[in-house]
Amino acid sequence: MPPPTRHPVAELRDRFLQRLRESSTSREPRGLYEPISYIMGIGGKRVRPLLALIAARMFGDDEELTAGMPVALAVETFHNFTLLHDDIMDASPLRRGNPTVHEKWDVNTAILSGDLMLIQAYAHLCGAPDKRRTHDLLCTFNRIATGVCEGQQFDVDFELRSHVTIEEYLDMIELKTAVLLGGALEMGALSAGAGREDADHLYAFGRLTGLAFQLHDDLLDTFGDGKQTGKLTGNDIIRNKKTFLYIKTLESLDETQRGELVEWFSHSPEDPAPKVARVTELMRLRDIPRLVAELRDQFQKEAYAHLAAVNGDAAWKDALRQLTEELLSRDN
């Protein structure tokens, strides 16, 4: 079925947000449910539910999104659950420009409300209309959720290590970020009756696209315009994060400059401006922004090869490609 006259992704986003508002609850105890409504309602790009809905439409889901909506709600609930707990682990005061749940309420509330969000994600999947697909959806979700948790632990471990390889970093961001994008597409397709081969191609497309997204985010964090990104430029450098940019720079410098970079990343000066300026200078010296952009583009080229192999509706495949291009060309 062809997309509606209106921009198809905008239509899906509006329908999802409407359903999200309808699913919001003010049940008792309020101290458990209000934090969930809060974190789910403070924005975000809603990329993961959109991917699930596009994949479902690609394989014949109706205009009411009967098959894909439970998956979309599940992946968005799970994603926000991980953010809620990540904010506790990182002691982050803000999320999307608003106080984090553990700051607005307290840590115990954030832990318990997050636990319930994980349960709600499973409940959404169990609400998928085609019960023949429930087993596949739950098994896929378990695989994806396990990967996300593994990726988070690798990220934590890397903070304590003096050396991280490029391969280890790519494995980490694949688990922490990319597998959920792939899983949203895979589950969306399965919910609408897609075969395993097509679902696998969509998963691969999402996984590779997720790697490209993360590399683009790394570039924006270090070299983006803070007025455009809404974030502090160089925040990864200030926090001594071992991103792809740092690892690639470290392996390309001579011994003296390598020692200087390691020294910069061994402490957090009260005024971070000289640190950010010098580290970015070292990165530019070794042409790191170009190298990262080339790898990003290579991942996306491989992703599009998988999308081309999918036997789904061509119009919705085009919509997915257009959404991807918009996200990869963003400056915030």
UniProtKB/TrEMBL annotation:
Main EC class the enzyme belongs to: transferase
InterPro entries linked to this entry:
Isoprenoid_synthase_dom_sf, Polyprenyl_synt, Polyprenyl_synt_CS
Q: Which Pfam families match?
A: polyprenyl_synt
GO MF, any single term? metal ion binding
Recorded E.C. number(s)?
A: 2.5.1.1, 2.5.1.10, 2.5.1.29
Domain of life from the UniProt record: Bacteria
Q: Which UniProt keywords apply?
A: Magnesium, Metal-binding, Transferase
**Cofactor(s) the protein needs:** Mg(2+)
Give GO BP annotations, semicolon-separated: isoprenoid biosynthetic process
Q: What PROSITE patterns does the annotation carry?
A: POLYPRENYL_SYNTHASE_1
Per the record, the similarity remark reads: Belongs to the FPP/GGPP synthase family.
Task: From the Swiss-Prot or TrEMBL record, give the protein name.
Answer: Geranylgeranyl diphosphate synthase type II
Could you read off the lineage of the organism from its UniProt record?
Bacteria, Pseudomonadati, Bacteroidota, Saprospiria, Saprospirales
